[in-house]
Amino acid sequence: MQRSAKEMASAPVGVMILGRKRRGFDQEWNQAICGRALEVLRKLGFSTAGAEAPVVDDATIKAALDAMRAAGCQALVMLQPSMGHGQLALTVAQEWRDPVVLWATPERPGDGKVSSCSLVGQHLWGSSLRQAGHAFELVYGDPDDDALRAELVRAIAIARTAAVLRGAKVGVIGTHAPGFIDLAADPFLLRRTLGVQLQPLSLPQFIERVHAVAEESMRKDVERVLDWKLPMRDVTADDLGMNSRCYLAMRELMAEESLDAISIQCWPELPNMIGQWPYLAVTRLSTEGLAVSIEGDVDGAIGSLMNCHLGTGPGFLTDWLEHDRNTIYFWHPGMAPMDMCYAAGSAGGPTLAKHFNIVKPLVVDAAIRANEDATIARLWRCDGRYHMTAFEGRTVAPRRKVTGNFVLVELAEAEIRSGGDVPARFDRLVHAGMPHHVTLSLGKNAESLRRLARALKVEWRA
Length: 462
Fold this sequence. Notes:
Elements: H1 5-10, E1 13-17, H2 27-43, E2 48-49, H3 58-70, E3 76-79, H4 88-95, E4 100-104, H5 118-131, E5 136-140, H6 146-166, E6 169-173, H7 187-194, E7 197-201, H8 203-212, H9 215-226, H10 240-256, E8 261-264, H11 269-273, H12 279-287, E9 291-294, H13 298-310, E10 316-323, E11 327-332, E12 351-354, E13 361-367, E14 373-382, E15 385-396, E16 405-410, H14 413-419, H15 422-431, E17 437-442, H16 446-456, E18 459-460
C-alpha cells in the first residue's frame, strides 16, 4: 500500500525561514524566535527539513523546496521572523502546489519598538496567496503557547491531508450497490477537484482472488481472529475461513494496486456468490487504520481517508436511520472499527453473528461507545462540484438496541442554535444532495474538516 497515515505523520515537515537581503528589524529577537519555533516542532514530534538557512530570493526558495521534496516532506511551514519580500509568495505558490502553513510569531515583548512585523508579513503573504488561488493555513502565536501548538498541529495535518489526497489512489471493487445511485462516483470530477485517482476493479476477479487465497495463509489468519476470543452467535469457527480469505484478498489487492483507500460492492453478490458478507474483514481493515467503505461508496472511502490523516481514524460509515429534534440514530450492518466499540466481552461489546437481512455470516454486532464527543461528516458530489459538511454531537445511550453497529448522537443546544435543529439540518443537507451515508468519528473534528474543505476548494455546507 501507499504510505499509511502513521507513516505520513512521521514524515518530516518542511520549514522555510524567510530572510532579508538587507538587515532590518531586531535580528537577535528573530533568531531567538526561530530557534524556539524549531524546538517546539521537535517537541511536538515533528522532524524538520529545509530550515538550515533562510531563503531570500527565487533561487534559494527553489533549492530549499527541492531539498524538502527529496526528504519526503508533505507539509510546508513558513516562518517570517522579519517581514520579508512579499513577491516571493508567488514564487512559493508556483513551486509548491499544496497548502502552506504561515506561522506568524509575536513581537519582542516590552522593548518599546517594532521588532519583527511578522504578523504583518504573513498577512501580506496570506492575502497574496488567496488572490493567487493557493491554499494556506495561518497560525499566530508564541511557540510556548499551548493554544498555538494545537493550532499548529492541526494546520500541519490539514496541509498533509490535502497533499495526500492530491496523490491518492482509491479502488472500487465493482460499483455502487443496486439502486444506490447517490453513491455513484465521477472519476474525472474526483481528479479535477481533489486530485484523487479512481481505479475501478472487477468484482468477479476479486471473487476469484478470494477463492485463490492459499489454504495455509487462511488457516493462520483464522487463528489470529480466534485469538481475539470474540463471542459468537449463530456462527462457529468454521465460518471464519471465508472472511479471512476476504480480508487477505483485500489487503493483497490494496498492496498490489498501491491503493490508499478501497470500496467494495458487498451486496447482493458477495453473500450469494461466496456465501458470506465481508463485514468482519472490513472491521479488521478499518481497525488497522485503513480507509475502507462498503456498498461501493467511493466518496465515503475518501472521507475515511481524510479522517485517517487528520488523526481521528477512519470512522464508521453509517446510515442516518432516524432522528428527532436533537438526536440522530445511526446504524449500519456490523462493520465498524473495533476501537469505536465497547471492549470485547463487555456488555454491548463485539459479537460475531449473521446479517439480519440476507441471513449469512459474518458481521460484527457491537454498540458504538456512549459518552464520547463525535463528529458527523460527509463528502459528496452534486451539481458538478464537490461539497462537504461536518457537525458535532455527543454519543449517548440508545433508547433501543438493534443488531449491527448502532449509536445515538445528541446535538448540544449551541450546535442547534448555530445550525438549526436536526430536522432542519437534515432537510437542508438532503436538498444539497447529501447521500444517505455519513461518517461518524469519535472526537471533535468539524473545524479541521471545514478548513480542509477550504484548502481543497470544496463547497462547505453548514
